[in-house]
């Protein structure tokens, strides 16, 4: 019988699953999405491939899970920052700055790399829905600002952010890219510069 390294079987399974997901992220970032398989993930986590199948049916399922988790974590951090800004203009700026800060930290690479591989339509649709949901704070801020088409404008802003992130990935410094991107979005929205105050302390 396998050794249980936790007070309960449920906790042991949760720990094993977390170890597999952490290993899968490492495999993804080091070797790309095509390298994520039960065999490679199991080896990285120090488990047999047969043990991996107790948690995940395929490499695609592992990819879907780690990409989904990355998108949820990303969305939570963006939403928390945006909600602390007091004005719609401040919320838009917070969205831009937080997105670029997360990108500079490398947090986006899991979502970007992992979302390139899923083969089935349902998985691609689920990931697209998660990405769409992550921009909800931006769309809400645009609507509050009086923008006539928040959905399209949010997509255009995310397009600009994608190019800014590409510059960061290419070696440009975040502290140089972020102010220029914020200024570009302000000009595009005809938003005057105002200090971005936040609710509460800090």
SSE topology:
Blueprint: H1 9-31, H2 38-45, H3 49-52, H4 59-84, H5 88-104, H6 108-114, H7 121-134, H8 136-145, H9 150-169, H10 174-189
Helix pairs in contact: 1-2, 1-4, 4-5, 4-6, 4-7, 5-8, 5-9, 5-10, 8-9, 9-10
Question: Could you write a compact summary of the structure shown?
Answer:
The protein has 202 residues and is mainly alpha-helical.
Describe this protein with a few key phrases.
202 residues, mainly alpha, Arc Repressor Mutant, subunit A, Tetracycline Repressor, domain 2, 2 domains, 0% strand, elongated, disordered C terminus, TetR family transcriptional regulator, HTH_TetR, transcription regulation, DNA binding
């Amino acid at each position: 019988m396998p050794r249980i390294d936790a007070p309960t079987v449920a906790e042991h399974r949760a720990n094993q699953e977390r170890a597999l997901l952490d290993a899968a992220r490492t495999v993804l970032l080091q070797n790309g999405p095509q390298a994520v398989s039960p065999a490679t993930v199991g080896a990285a986590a120090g488990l047999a491939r047969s043990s991996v199948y107790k948690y995940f049916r395929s490499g695609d399922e592992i990819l879907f899970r780690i990409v989904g988790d990355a998108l949820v974590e990303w969305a939570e951090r963006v939403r928390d920052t945006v909600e602390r800004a007091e004005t719609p203009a401040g919320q838009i700026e917070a969205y831009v700055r937080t997105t670029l800060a997360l990108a500079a930290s490398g947090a986006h690479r899991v979502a970007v790399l992992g979302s390139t591989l899923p083969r089935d339509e349902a998985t691609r649709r689920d990931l697209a829905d998660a990405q769409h949901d992550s921009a909800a704070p931006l769309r809400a801020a645009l609507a509050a600002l009086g923008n006539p088409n928040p959905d399209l404008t949010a997509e255009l802003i995310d397009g600009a952010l994608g190019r800014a992130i590409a510059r960061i990935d290419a070696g440009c410094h975040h502290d140089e890219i972020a102010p220029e991107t914020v200024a570009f979005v302000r000009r595009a929205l005809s938003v005057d510069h105002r200090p971005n105050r936040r609710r509460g302390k800090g």
